[in-house]
Amino acid sequence: MTSTRIASPSDASEIAELLVAFNTEFEVPTPAAAVLADRLSTLLHSEDTFAILEGGPARGVALVTLRRNVWYSGRVALLDELYVKPEDRNHGIGSKLIQHLFSVAKERSLALIEINVDEGDIDAQRFYSRHHFSAADPDTHERAFYYYREFE
Amino acid sequence: MTSTRIASPSDASEIAELLVAFNTEFEVPTPAAAVLADRLSTLLHSEDTFAILEGGPARGVALVTLRRNVWYSGRVALLDELYVKPEDRNHGIGSKLIQHLFSVAKERSLALIEINVDEGDIDAQRFYSRHHFSAADPDTHERAFYYYREFE
Asked: CB–CB of B68/B75 below 8 Å?
């Protein structure tokens, strides 16, 4: 039996705690755990968001949102966050989460998984390359930067 | 009266022709116009995809998909494509499309607009910077690369 599983809406609080820990570790301002838990509880009830957890209590989480895209018949998944607790790193938990995500992608006929990786985070870039992600466009062989404008 | 407007599902064929022209111009393999028109017709009926057109017949298009995200209460928009016909460039049509997108973002309480811009496409990077997009994370001041893995 594997301890890697799709989260249910009742896991919202546990996931929220992991996301707060993630922001706190990287010194990024974070919404309160209760706010995130509320949102997650709604999101995890929908078809368009799912999370994968490893361990009980959870040692790591992958949070994924889905959208449509004109270039593919299947849906496109964005890996919003992949986080493993500091004390549980270097035990392959990130890889277990990613492998589980690949199974879900195949089951649900997802077309693509996307993730944005910091320019200087060479470890994360290696991790995703090892798991068959690429930054180079197949046609232009060029990488792309993520640009954004916030309104909220 | 402005000639910039939200597309209706009946504009699907015209948008498909623009997307094929876009791929052809940049020598990228493209699905047939009929396939794209079919998909667009479905997508434009949904809540999660919209397009903005400029001119009649259209001289440019912005294609946008929406998703949820745990970090924001509003939805997040991804600008999948922004294309202006070669013969109509340098007349501010791209800016008109972007400004119209900003109005829609405010009307619909969108939290964020995202776009991936090629590393070497300095003109596009200048265009988005001029329209208040940023590549640098507000907290880490770092840029991020777009990584993906295809399954389709």
From this structure: yes
Amino acid at B80: D
Helices H / strands E in chain B, number of each: 4, 6
| Mean pLDDT on B7-28 | 96
Q: Pull the structure tokens for residue A118.
A: 């910091």
From B136, which residue of chain A is nearest by alpha-carbon distance?
Answer: A147
Which CATH superfamily is A4-130 part of? Gcn5-related N-acetyltransferase (GNAT) (3.40.630.30)
Q: Taking CB atoms and an 8 Å limit, are A67 and B48 in contact across chains? A: yes
Burial of A32 per CB tally in 10 Å (0-12, 13-18, 19+): exposed
What stretches of B1-146 show up as alpha helix (H) in DSSP? 12-25, 33-45, 93-107, 122-130
Checking ipTM against 0.90, whether it exceeds it is yes
Residue ranges covered by each domain of chain B: 4-130
The label of the residue with tokens 């910091």 reads A118
- Selecting from B27, B121, B146 the residue whose C-beta is nearest the C-beta of A146 gives B146
Q: Does A115 touch chain B (CB under 8 A)?
A: yes
Mean pLDDT (10-residue bins), chain A, 152 residues: 88 97 93 97 96 96 96 96 96 97 97 96 96 91 95 86
Q: Is B47 on the interface with A (CB under 8 A)?
A: no
The answer to whether B60 touches B85, Cβ cutoff 8 Å, is yes
Distances (CA, A) of A29 to B64, B115, B127: 28, 23, 29
A40 phi, psi to nearest 5 deg: -65, -40
